[in-house]
Fold this protein.
Amino acid sequence: MKKNIIVLLLVLCALPAIAATTSFIKTIDNSVPGRTRILIDHIWREELNYTSGGLTFTFPANLFSSPPIILVTHKLNGAYSAGTSFVACIESSDATQAVVRIDLITSSTVAEAATNDVTVSLVAIGG
């Protein structure tokens, strides 16, 4: 059962997003005695170009009753430059939104990424 959920998450992360998408999934795994059931009510995904100052991803009203699990990926919008890395930082999250900052790291500096350096994809999973 876990394998199915992971495959679904990988597919959600790989799909191009024109607008935010929401899925509803309910899964219960009782194959091992004493195992806690797995119940996922909502999976929400949105992809945005990065804006200096950070991105706020706002979830649809009442989608999550508690803070969801947040997964963030990013892809470079320009050519790769040797010796640089981009790192996604979740600055805050709750049941209504998540704030993401992207840092650009070189051998000597850590600074915020510039507007449009990367495209950020956020997946929120919760109930």
User: Anything to note?
Assistant: The two ends are 18 Å apart (CA to CA). Residues 1-18 have pLDDT under 50 and may be disordered. The first strand starts at residue 21 and ends at 23.
